[in-house]
Model the fold of this input.
Amino acid sequence: MFDLDRWREIFQAISKNKLRTVLSGFTIAFAILLFTLLFGIGNGLKNMFETQFAGDSQNSVYVYSGRTTKPYKGLQSGRRIQFRNDDLQFMNEEFEDEIQFFSPNIQRQMQGSYKGEQNRYTVRGVYPDYQPLESAVIESGRFISVLDLKNRMKVVTIGRLVEQDLFGQLSALGKEINLDGFSYRVIGVFSDPGGDNDERYIYTPFTTIQGMYKENDEVDYVGLTFNPKMNVDQALNFSNSLTKLLKDKHSVAPRDQNAIRVRNYAEGTKNVQQFMTVLNVIILFIGIGTLVAGIIGISNIMVYIVKERTKELGIRKALGASPNSIIGMIMMESVFITALAGYVGLLIGVFTLKAIGDGLEDYFIINPSVENYVVVGATIILIIAGTIAGYIPAKRAASIKPIVALNDD
Done:
């Protein structure tokens, strides 16, 4: 039950010994503050990596062609490798089980305009499967469809910022925009977690743009996603096999790194996972070290506090106080100071992270924050440590005979 007299005694002891109270509280608050800042900065680094990969699906693979840098099979170096429609069929047939989504891409810079408003945009001719590759989220209307592809429709799905540039506050759905002299009907508007640049793209059916701007079934590059059931190593093996077969098909030297390039996001994901594992271990090690330092500090201060109050405890015992009441009073004081100081340290840490959060983006730290359960758990550990640290010397002091305690210097 709540004992008012006990709490009065605790507050009287705190008010009469301000220095030791401040010192013990500072040790705890500083430990929690440092713990909060460390984990907050660690989470900021995680957020940075997540933001970097936010624009595309994490199981994306992009295949690009270039020029050969090595002679091979009697062919000279410097040949231009050009993907064509038969390469699309080849990839789908060879890796039917490994490919989830698949889309070729033809990309051009075009002048877009609507009723006097104009700007230059990147226009991509794609398959309907390209939407999950870019993690595009349809805000209104729809994305390119198979029927659009089959009929070579002059339709476009535009980014949110394209709509904002050309239409202002009006909806773009159903309206006609001009792209390099040709009229296209807007069938959808999308947003993209990758940010502003990704929201200034315009998508149109691949067959439409290929028929208008490419000869001989040419393709700029290919995007696809691998089967999500694959682990990282299987995904990397898949992209290696894809690279090898394409090099064989186009008579490219196995060690030629420029003619056919495959960018597999699984490799970046693996590197990030390894980095984050190391980072988490480092932060955890430093955090545990911080808590241990706080626990040692609390223990030393509590030993000093109990020793300082030996005469007081002797007087209490002489007046009839039981050992348990003395132990309970010291432990309650210890828990109260630890909990209050821990909460103060937590508040300072959280407000500090919020205050400096925007200024850390130049150091690749985005939105540094810490989960409440992590810091609350650390505070509870310190409270338990403070309780143990107060109990051991308190029990020893409570067992001293009153006459010995009164004679203590």
The CA atoms of residues 21 and 117 lie 68 Å apart. The longest strand covers residues 99-114. The two ends are 36 Å apart (CA to CA). The chain has a mean pLDDT of 83.
